[in-house]
Design goal:
The chain has 314 residues and is an alpha+beta fold. The protein has helices at residues 15-21, 41-50, 79-84, 102-118, 178-186, 239-256, 268-285, 292-303, and strands at 11-12, 27-31, 56-60, 91-95, 133-139, 144-148, 153-160, 163-167, 202-206, 210-214, 220-224, 229-236. Bound molecules: fe (ii) ion.
Length: 314
């Protein structure tokens, strides 16, 4: 059992990584979150019972690196049972937006504060850690997370079990084009993986106590080994990231009603106009998002008929 004094919400990395590589390049980290009482299977099962259904996604862990989103095998258990039986369920699960639970929010903020201080700042806000969100992953042995990208910066920490995390630089858009990035953000996150990419990846081999920093929109795929796995993605969005994300969503909606759009950054004047209209609209409908049924309807209207693919039973 991990001694109590060794469980502290801290991340460490080399000085070079925190000053030279951050935030544009991935790097290995270490942390002291393994064994934390909020990150045990029994506490995670409790969290799964408390979260709204649209913040829980799970399916079989027996999927391909290049997985067709329309052919993902499901798991016939409720979310709490998936967590309790994760050693044998053959499942992959993510609990989203766990910062909505106050103790988890504190854990995320305290952990990022350790990085902020290591970089010479006194607060998360000063360090640029805005819109902090947490995603908790629970996976059975020998599970795969297909190739995809995420639209935030991420300290990924391995809590239990062995995990292989392979990440790819996409600065030249050769691995995922602008169109594929927009699709990944707004329809389904999975990307097509070309085996020719394989030797371009950087692999992080992690056990409890290890982790990695994953920059904004760097494509990656992940697999577990012979033990079940618990991992936590500690994410944030800077102002620039929120701007690009909003433009992608705006572009997707306009494209959906027949107006082709250029990728963010290609036409800055038009980007600014679109962003103003989009943000006025999303602010106006924000109160509607308190209801699960309304969130499902809004996702369906904004992102298309498959937008609620991950909660067929809800
Ligand atoms: Fe990811």
């Amino acid at each position: 059992m991990t001694p109590v004094q060794d469980i502290a919400p801290t991340i460490t990395a080399s000085h070079a990584a925190l000053t030279r590589d951050f935030p544009l390049k991935p790097f290995a980290i270490r942390h002291k979150l393994a064994g934390h009482p909020l990150l045990t299977l029994s506490r995670i099962a409790q969290l799964a019972s408390e979260l709204p259904r649209d913040l829980i996604e799970y399916n079989s862990g027996k999927v391909a690196i290049s997985q067709d989103p329309n052919a993902i095998p499901s798991v016939d258990l409720d979310p709490v049972e998936v967590v309790k039986r994760i050693e044998t369920a053959g499942a992959w699960m993510v609990l989203k937006r766990i910062e909505n639970s106050p103790p988890y929010r504190r854990l995320l903020e305290d952990t990022l504060l350790s990085v902020a201080k290591a970089r010479g700042f006194n607060s998360c806000l000063d360090a640029g850690f805005e819109q902090i969100e947490g995603f908790l992953f629970v996976s059975s042995p020998n599970s795969t997370t297909p190739f995809h990208l995420d639209s935030e910066d991420n300290f990924f920490v391995q809590i239990h079990g062995e995990k292989f995390f392979t990440v790819y630089d996409n600065a030249d858009r050769a691995i995922a084009s602008d169109d594929q990035i927009e699709h990944s953000m707004t329809k389904h996150r999975n990307l097509v993986f070309d085996p020719q990419f394989a030797d371009r990846g950087t692999e992080f081999h992690m056990h409890g106590g290890d982790g990695c920093y994953i920059p904004y929109q760097w494509p990656h795929w992940v697999r577990t080994a012979n033990d079940y796995s618990i991992s936590l993605a500690i994410t944030w969005k800077t102002k620039d990231v929120r701007r690009v994300n909003d433009l992608h969503f705006c572009n997707s909606m306009l494209r959906g009603v027949g107006f082709p759009q250029q990728a963010p950054g290609k036409n800055p004047v038009f980007d600014a106009m679109k962003l103003a209209v989009f943000r006025t609209g999303t602010t106006a409908i924000k109160p509607l998002r308190a209801s699960l049924a309304m969130r499902k309807l809004l996702r369906r209207l904004a992102l298309g008929k498959d937008a609620n693919y991950y909660m067929k039973d809800a």
